[in-house]
Amino acid sequence: MSVIVAILVGVVTVLFLRIAGGEMLAMPALSRTNYRGLPLPTAAGILIVLAVLVIEAGRAILGAAGVGEDPGLTLDRSLVLFAAFGFGFLGFVDDLLGGGQDRGFRGHVRALAQGRLTTGFLKLFGGAGVAVVLVATPGFATGRRLITDAVLIALAANFANLLDLAPGRLIKASWVAYLPLAVVLGTDDIAIAIAPIMGAALGLLPDDLRERLMLGDTGANVIGATLGLGVVLGLGSEGRTGVLVALIVLNVLAELLSFSRVIERVRFLRAFDRWGQRPERRHA
Question: What residue spans define the domains of the chain?
């Protein structure tokens, strides 16, 4: 399966799930108000997780029937599946149970110091654990690389959460990051493995832009972690180090300033951010 075909399969699969799962997303437990006070279904990123599961199951069935690839999962596809389910689960818990005024890393640490374990801290701590398990796969990484690559994946997931503050922002930004990564990865196994997830995210972009749903931490976690995993599996030492440094800087800056305000002040960022959004939206 080529990368382009894998992306298209991701788009088609998530659109089918979007139609079939409309009643599920409409459940009151998933209703949250967005920045304009509109009640919308959150955690719609669960459709991305389900899409990659359906696609991998379909590949296995077709392979067993002698169509296409071998039915067995490759290591890269197994890692992507684990990342989607691990980070997706943590995000889903936060989407369902999260709340309160504790925001950002400092807010969650402050709450912990006061004896309160927030779902946000659980997501951060659990995400770090999932990242370590991913990188600790036999034959993958040991020693210092295990720690640095796990931090990269966890920071990528966290930064994606920080971007998901306006309709379509995260998906558009993730594709800006994904396109050069896809060129570097070419047709490697990891390129084929992450393509359906990025395709599924793209399939949800129209609904996200038109404020018919919110990806929630479920979707942001999965998209960010997937891109981080693609960097870890597909780039050399220098490339991974560069991305890690950039993610550290961006995550620290997010604690000090508002990215939404920066975007509003820079013309081309503002235009890109507002592209496709409802014209009456106010600043995020």
Answer: 3-274
